[in-house]
Amino acid sequence: MKQKMKMLRVMAVFTGLALTVTGCGSQEKTPEKDSGEEQVTITYESFSPTQETMDRILESFKEAHPEIHVEVKLHANASEYMTSVQTAFASGEGPDVFQFDGPTALGQLNSQMEPLNNYCKKEWGENWIADFAESAITDNSIDGSVYGLPQPTNPAGTMWYNKTLLDSLGLEVPTNYEELKKTADALRENGKQPLLIGAKDSWVVIDTFQTILNDFAGDKQYKAYNKEIPFTDPDIVSAFKMWQKLFDDGIFQDSAFSMTEYMDTYNQFNDEGIAGMWLNGAWNMDMYTNPEIEKNVSSNEWGVTYLPDLNGDGKRPDLLLTSGGYCMNKNSKEKEAAWELVKFMGCDDGAKFECERAMAPSGYLKMEEPQYDLSDNALENLEAISQMMVEQPLQHRGIEDPKVSDAMYEALTKLAYGEITPEEAAAEVDKAIN
To answer: What is the 3-state secondary structure (H, E, C) of 321-352?
Structure first.
């Protein structure tokens, strides 16, 4: 049986703000141009949304802006996308409008972005920033300059599980390390994958390790990034020890670093159903709206929860939350047209359609609330995610300095293969910070 349900807003982010206006520009559509007038062509490149959602967005954008033609290039995952746009920018080219998925990517691509402060002020007036979630604008800014309009936001640091598979093997959802080890061993013994991670993608490795750091070291990682304490702090080193232990004890699948999050582990978990657990953000709710895997998704019952308590203090690690954004190329020859698409993707129908697909709240507070036609299991997980986002603090996701982010991924890779010690891994990151 299916039901209708409006998106649950995250109280910690959106408290006290009414949702009253659809779209974030003028409520009047742009008048159609004379048939003899040429269209302006701009390009959009990213790893999201899906092709189906992008087609909906383009159709709606064309109705609002018949004078603008958009050419789209979508990639299978964020890593492939980042390689493509960085290569294009290095050669003096690149898309007019593109996307970043958090502070790390913002730092990597920022030199190519057009500041949007003046565009926003012209569009919505001096107090425009009040119509956006504060955290979403902060995550799209560097030194007071806003470079992106926020994309839909869901927390990282969650663990998904195939309840149908676990139940069939008489296994419980693990809440601590001992239970996690027992569950992973039982899954392996029955020919199934244990805890999946697409470690070929640096972002999911860093997401996971930052969550482990939250468990072992609290806010010490953020103090270390700011050079208030060394990254070689004993609690931080303990987190590196746990990362290595997860590989040594066979908690993660054997081929972790040869597999991407999208689509290698995504397919094994959501479509093939051969893994008991998977590390990915709450945005995996979009499996319920993916028509390509609808049959297999509907044949299983799924769950989402915190990463297990790994340090044994009885507390679950805090989740991570950061907004990415839609931005424009500072070298675009069609900046006015590019701004219209950025605005459409961040606030108008583009944002609405993407929120519906990802089942995630928008950073724009005046956007019309999407409605969903979901299964009971999907609604349960949507409610579980919303509850997790209000019952514990949401910590900052990502590392702003791309050199530190690269050093972190390299150290964690070498540590997983036993090439360095946890102490050496911490020292490598500390060196990059300083």
So the answer is: ECCCEEEEECCCCCHHHHHHHHHHHHCCHHHH
The two tokens of residue 172 are 């419980």
Cis bond before residue 11 (omega within 30° of 0): no
Of the candidates 370, 367, 362, the one whose C-alpha atom is nearest the C-alpha of residue 323 is 362
40-46 and 68-74 beta bridge pairing: parallel
Q: Do residues 383 and 10 lie in contact, with contact meaning Cβ atoms separated by under 8 Å?
A: no
Residues in the chain: 434
Q: What angle do CA 162, 253, 430 make, to 5 degrees?
A: 115
Tokens of 244: 């290595």
Rounded to whole angstroms, the Cα distance separating 242 from 237 reads: 9
8 A C-beta contact, residue 317 and residue 157: yes
Q: How far apart are CA 273 and CA 432, in angstroms?
A: 40
Answer yes or no: are the C-beta atoms of 124 and 351 closer than 8 Å. Answer: no
- Four-CA torsion 45, 51, 52, 54, nearest 10 degrees: 10
Q: How far apart are CA 277 and CA 169, in angstroms?
A: 13
Average pLDDT over residues 228-249: 98
What per-residue string of b and e applies to 318-339 under the rule 16 or more CB within 10 Å gives b?
Answer: bbbbbbbbbbbbeebebbebbb
Under DSSP, the state recorded for 256 is G
CA dist 12 and 70 (Å) reads 36
Q: Where are the alpha helices (DSSP H) in 7-50?
A: 11-14
How far is Cα 13 from Cα 151, in angstroms, rounded to an integer?
14
Pair 23, 371: CB distance under 8 Å: no
For 33-86, what is each residue's pLDDT tens digit? 444 568 999 999 999 998 999 999 999 999 999 999 999 999 988 889 999 999
Question: What is the rounded distance in angstroms from the CA atom of residue 406 to the CA atom of residue 429?
Answer: 9
